[in-house]
Specification:
The structure holds 2 protein chains of 2 kinds. Helices cover 35% and strands 14% of the residues of chain A. Chain A is α+β, with helices and mostly antiparallel strands. Chain A is elongated, with a radius of gyration of 18 Å. By secondary structure, chain B is α+β, with helices and mostly antiparallel strands. Among the domains of chain B are: 99 residues, Alpha-Beta Plaits; 74 residues, PUA domain (Archaeosine Trna-guanine Transglycosylase, Chain: A, domain 4, Roll), CATH 2.30.130. Chain B has 8 helices and 14 strands. In chain B, strands 1, 2, 3, 4, 5, 6 and 7 form a 7-stranded mixed beta sheet that branches. Chain B has a 6-stranded mixed beta sheet with strand order 10-14-13-12-9-11. Classes of the chains: A alpha+beta, B alpha+beta. At the A-B interface, helix 1, strand 1, helix 2, strand 2 and helix 3 of A face strand 1, helix 3, strand 6, strand 7 and helix 4 of B. Strand 2 of chain A pairs antiparallel with strand 1 of chain B, so a sheet runs across the interface. Chain A: InterPro entries: Dyskerin-like, PsdUridine_synth_cat_dom_sf, PUA_sf, tRNA_PsdUridine_synth_B_fam. Chain A: GO terms for molecular function: pseudouridine synthase activity; RNA binding. Chain A: This is DKCLD domain protein.
């Protein structure tokens, strides 16, 4: 399988897994060079971490903010963030 | 409260904000203050499906004015005596605790939220990708102490999963570096796009290898773009990829 086919398949797979359905309009055919860039799932491990998202099952107790702080510390990162607060006691937003 | 909390690492933090305003799904236990019959409960739950009015609760991070929120569905999973188990699909910013309270009001018996678990936030769901803190810790240990990165690769998803719900535009290698420098996207740089690209909608710009380059705002619909020969069609608003990864074709042309 060529690089382009692998790239498109990857995009189609993550879209489908997330429960979305999208159709393409193809304007032209083109190739991509193996000399630069990399398939997202083939990033070297350090790059993979820095460009990664963890679908975390938030434990009860800590706030979303605290959980993010733990992850940040565990991975020794300068930044981490979450997609939508899930608070321990109060109604969540987002 | 437990459940789906996507956590972005380092660079991925740049785009994780895009999943905040996506659909949410919860499983909630409501405790009724007096038992009601099942027929009446179903009737009231149906009433809360669709567009509802909600005033954010006292303990909330937004202004307390009545606003509307769409409840896509409320599935009654179990009902016994005072306890009601529901699955709710709703718009971002819907307060579940308030919903439970309001259901109690309409039933005329009073009710409150007893337990809550989020089962979906936009592209992230309660599926085989959902991991616990313990698994993260173990995967890190295996990588750092045993040099085995397989588990880490299993629990960390590529950043591209965070834009799975967005319309997409795939561009040629020769256009990548210009966009990575913040340039807007013109028609000749596009290889393919999804049909849901629409005016003023956020789109993800990707390489042919599937790498996220940037997020932008579409200036035309997919059909309009397909019928154009030239012109800017996406205003780049958030660059993800660092410049210099793809060759600077545009720079060479300038120098010539």
């Amino acid at each position: 399988m060529g690089l382009v086919e692998k790239g498109i398949r990857f995009i189609e797979k993550i879209t489908k897994n997330a429960g979305y359905d999208q159709e393409w309009i193809i304007l032209r055919e083109d190739d991509t060079s193996p000399d630069y860039g990399v398939l997202p799932y083939q990033r070297p491990i350090n790059e993979h971490i820095r460009n990664g998202v963890i679908n975390l099952d938030k434990p009860p107790g800590p706030t979303s903010h605290e959980v993010v702080a733990w992850i940040k510390k565990m991975f020794e990162l300068e930044r981490a963030g979450h997609g939508g607060t899930l608070e321990p006691l109060y109604p969540q937003l987002g | 409260m437990t459940g789906v909390l996507p956590v972005a690492l380092a660079n991925a933090t740049k785009v994780i904000g895009n999943v905040i305003h996506t659909i949410k799904e919860y499983v909630m236990v409501i405790q009724l203050h007096t038992p009601v019959d099942n027929e009446r409960l179903r009737e009231v739950l149906r009433y809360f499906t669709g567009v509802i009015y909600q005033r954010p609760p006292l303990r909330s991070s937004v202004k307390r004015v009545i606003r509307t929120r769409r409840i896509h569905y409320i599935d009654l999973l179990e009902h016994s005596d005072r306890y009601v188990l529901v699955r709710v699909g709703c718009e971002a910013g819907t307060y579940m605790r308030k919903l439970a309270h309001d259901i109690g009001l309409l039933l005329g018996v009073g009710a409150h939220m007893r337990e809550l678990r989020r089962t979906r936030t936009g592209p992230y769901k309660e599926d085989e990708t959902l991991v616990r803190m313990q698994e993260v810790s173990e995967a890190l240990y295996l990588w750092r102490n045993k040099g085995d990165e397989r588990y880490l690769r299993k629990i960390i998803l590529p950043v591209e999963t965070a834009i799975a719900h967005l319309p997409k535009i795939i561009i040629r290698d020769t256009a990548v570096d210009a966009v990575a420098h913040g340039a807007h996207l013109a028609v000749p740089g596009i290889v393919r796009l999804t049909k849901d690209v629409a005016l003023n909608k956020t789109v993800a710009i990707l390489t042919l290898k599937g790498e996220l380059v940037a997020l932008g705002t579409a200036l035309k619909s997919a059909v309009e773009i397909a019928n154009m020969k030239k012109g800017i069609v996406v205003r780049t608003k958030r660059v993800y990829m660092k410049p210099g990864i793809y060759p600077a074709v545009w720079k060479k042309r300038q120098e010539q």
